[in-house]
Amino acid sequence: MAEFSIDRFVDRYAERTSGMSASEVRALFAVAARPEVVSLAGGMPYVEALPAQDVLEVATQVLRDLGPTALQYGGGQGQLALRDRAVMLMAEEGVDADPDDVVITTGAQQALDLLGKIFIDPGDIVAVEAPAYVGALTAFATYQPRFLTIELDDEGMIVEQLERAIVRGERPTFVYTVPNFGNPAGVTMSRRRREQLVALCRETGIPIVEDNPYGLLRFEGEPLPCLRSLDPRNVIYLGTVSKTFSPGVRVGWALADHSVIQRLVLAKEAADLCGSNLTMLLTERWFSDDARWRSALSGLVETYRARRDAMLQALEEHLPDTATWTHPFGGFYVWVTLPPWTDTTAMLAAAVERRVAYVPGTAFYPDGRGADRMRLAYCYPTEDRIREGVARLATLLEDDERLYRSFHRS
Amino acid sequence: MRIAIVAGGRTPERDVSLRGGRRMTLSLTELGHEAWLVDPAEVQLVEALGERRPDLCWLALHGKEGEDGTVQRLLDLLEIPYTGTAAFDCEVAFDKVLAKDALQRAGVPTPPWVVIEGWALRDLGGGAALGKATERVGLPCVVKPSRSGSALGMSFVEREGDLPQAVMAALAFSGAALIEAKVEGQEVAAALAGADLEPLPIVEIVPKEGVYDYAARYTAGATEYFCPARLSEGAAAAVAASAATAAAALHLRDLTRVDLIVDAKERPWVLEVNVSPGMTETSLVPIAAQAQGMSLSDLCDDILRSALRRV
């Protein structure tokens, strides 16, 4: 008799890989990628809206004028010229920064991983919004923290809950938040809550990680101050060009105290030596022409605004009264709450069968909640496709409700 | 010979199929054939087959269109021979409701079951009859979509109150849900391959989390396998006999895998049969072949010879 181990290293993997497994939802997303499916699932920026000729010109410029640098290794902190551009982009949102306090990362996603690496010991507490960005949860989870979940409402993170947890004796290593048009909830933290959060964390000495990928994609209302500008000493700020330019260049950054940056740079060098000079220079060149990037960005904002409007209108028109959803002032996502019996994970297969896809809510909670929620992204499909997708979703929800009613007549 | 491996497609098992299909392509190439992979989600199947005109199609698709007779009927029409079971028999074998009926008629023990159709629930008030289901099959029970693979949409139900949720989950994958008694015992798979459907060694499946679900199937290391299975001689013979009877009753050809549970009294119960068993690196058939000292190429050669008898 032989025991067959499919994976002969199975007993050798680190404890931290235990959560990494195949999943049904991933299998279904493979089907959702087919063209007849309206995908309201992925948060892919609509890069097709970028002026292709301009991008080509910039790329040509980089290779023609800066070829040897572009094709060479660079420093771990990233090109200074690009850090200057990051400082410029942060200034757009009222954040004052010195390029020395910036490290360029492979998308802000790498900054999340590096922050986990330098801050989280196994068992440490990380406070996150519930729901929270799934990419942050998975990046942090690798370092085996315990998540403290703080609920959201229309004003963002309910800071009183965090305060109560701290009074109870919880001591988070840091608080992670996406205050502007958050992923997945599409909610923006109010000014009152921002001030509250910053004050609470300053008093208790808990650093805040402010992740702000969508801040420049505002459709309505006045911009609110970034947490970083309310308390530069206690807030680590993450930015990216993924939504304002391209996610393909993989350029993001962290802004923090010099001591944090020093560790982040060392951690980054350990992970990948340095970012890609080629795409860093391309990004730097792209943002060197003020008129060009501003016009491209305002084109994107107009596109996303129209798509959000189409989605909100379609939800209003088609969804049953039992559903509620958020009204995002910017960004990519609407968060839908369905009746408590709904299981959006189980329902996903039927949705794909009806040629529409979404992300089930459970992905965004570290504690298994969220079965009655779903995230809908309006960033990529056209307005017509969004309307069609929402209509398909609505028939599915109606059928689901009829099924449920058939079990619970009394 | 010129062999088109048809893999991929547009089902949730797409990736599983492609992984297996690539392995088959390599093995057939090693055997000296001109083998290439065709993914019906990437190209128009009929057009692609018309262009390169294979002598044979090797069907490595999983899930609805690949295992339910759809592709087989199309190939019949195109007069291209293919590996595996014939169209009508695929249709029966892939549908758990039809297959279990056929098995019972052939005297193959299969756990007691009832079927509930989504339509009957939505439009005929069938939900009120759900209590009957648990009376008939008892608790705990297993709820599965009638037509789906890889344990997608399957759940175990311990408490009556959880049954509606499980039925709804199964109905997301298929028009009908099968509610089946849960037999406790050793989970085993009996693969049969070649012209005479020769049995391969029986594989015993021990999922680390207790449940052989999608994650346990496709995460390397999440399940332990024993091959041959830790069964008495008598139990192993009974498993082999049940598997052979099941395969004969359903007219399966070339390669199949029969999934069974052996209860405490060493009695085998057939859970389901697979028209197109998985051939990935974590799949059961390759494990069984390996235990017998067969390479993947040997196995492919057997399957091919079996299919060629019909050409």
Order of strands across the biggest sheet of chain A?
3-10-9-8-7-4-5-6
Taking all Cα atoms into account, the compactness measure Rg of chain B is 19 Å
Overall pLDDT of chain B: 92
> Count the strands of chain B?
13
DSSP strand content of chain B: 15-25%
Share of β-strand residues of chain A = 5-15%
Using the alpha-carbon principal axes, give the shape of chain A: globular
**Total helical elements of chain B:** 13
What does this structure look like?
- The complex is a heterodimer of chains A (410) and B (311).
- Chain A is an alpha/beta fold.
- Chain A is 43% helix and 15% strand.
- Chain A is built from 13 helices and 15 strands.
- In chain A, the strands form 3 sheets. Chain A has an 8-stranded mixed β-sheet with strand order 3-10-9-8-7-4-5-6, with helices on both faces. Chain A has a 4-stranded antiparallel β-sheet with strand order 11-12-15-14.
- In chain A, strand 8, helix 8 (227-230) and strand 9 (235-240) form a beta-alpha-beta unit.
- Chain B is of the alpha+beta class.
- Chain B contains 13 helices and 13 strands.
- In chain B, helix 1 (14-30) links the parallel strand 1 (2-6) and strand 2.
- Chain B is globular.
- Chain A binds chain B through residues 1-7, 9-10, 13, 20-24, 27-28, 30-31, 34, 341, 343, 346-353, 399-400, 402-409, and chain B through 10-16, 41, 118, 121-122, 125-128, 130, 150, 152-153, 164-165, 167-169, 171-173, 203, 214-215, 217-228, 230, 281-282, 287, 290-291.
- Strand 1 (2-4) of chain A pairs antiparallel with strand 11 of chain B.
SSE order and pairing:
The complex is a heterodimer of chains A (410) and B (311).
Chain A: E1 2-4, H1 24-32, E2 38-39, H2 52-70, H3 80-91, E3 102-106, H4 107-119, E4 125-130, H5 134-141, E5 146-153, E6 156-157, H6 159-168, E7 174-177, H7 191-204, E8 208-211, H8 227-230, E9 235-240, E10 251-255, H9 258-272, H10 277-286, H11 290-318, E11 324-325, E12 333-337, H12 344-353, E13 356-357, E14 359-360, E15 373-377, H13 383-407
Chain B: E1 2-6, H1 14-30, E2 34-38, H2 45-52, E3 56-59, H3 64-67, H4 70-78, H5 87-94, H6 96-105, E4 113-117, H7 118-124, H8 130-137, E5 141-145, E6 155-157, H9 163-171, E7 176-181, E8 186-193, E9 198-199, E10 203-207, H10 214-218, E11 223-227, H11 233-249, E12 255-262, E13 268-274, H12 284-291, H13 296-308
Parallel strand pairs in B: 1-2, 1-3
Antiparallel strand pairs in B: 4-7, 5-6, 5-7, 8-9, 8-10, 8-12, 10-11, 12-13
